Amino acid sequence: MKSSANAKLGRRAFLAGTAAFAATPAVAQSLNQGTTEIERDVNGIVRRNISSFRTLDWQTYFSNLNKGAILVDIDSRALHYWQESGQYHLYPSSVPLTEDLTRRGRTQVILKDPSPDWRPTPAMKIRNPEWPDYVGPGPDNPLGTRSLHLSWQYYRIHGTHDTRKIGRRSSNGCIGLYNEHIEELYEMAVVGTQVLLI
Question: Which residues are marked as active site?
């Protein structure tokens, strides 16, 4: 009888723990809405995206290439860019750390920032009050050397000074590129470039 009671208690504890764990993304989502970028520990073992890095056809995703088109494939951790002329570019990227931090859908480039500075969002400051209120442009800036602002508040396609993040789930919502790649994309993209995250 005692072992049966312990088994029931163990099962209840397991179910309660599982329910608490399952609720975590909802809590994390409510705390992380509107975040730009957060430093994550990238020293752990992480599976990269090499096997799924492939070229795509723009007609599957866009009706035209007016002002160019950017497609971010979250699963393959790749950014695809088609110039208005049809010329194609493919870049490895970092993507949001978890699904609850990931935003998918259509947006567009609304601002090109040639020398980004960084301010933590209100949600970041609540979670990390020790973080600085401001980081100016330069080598330690979390947004790298260039930034493309999207129409979704706080969301960017930007560079990163931490190249270990590329090809990984490591951001808090943004799409990161190597600095040399964001500099290339920055020169080609324009305000109004279509963006689709899938």
Answer: 158, 174
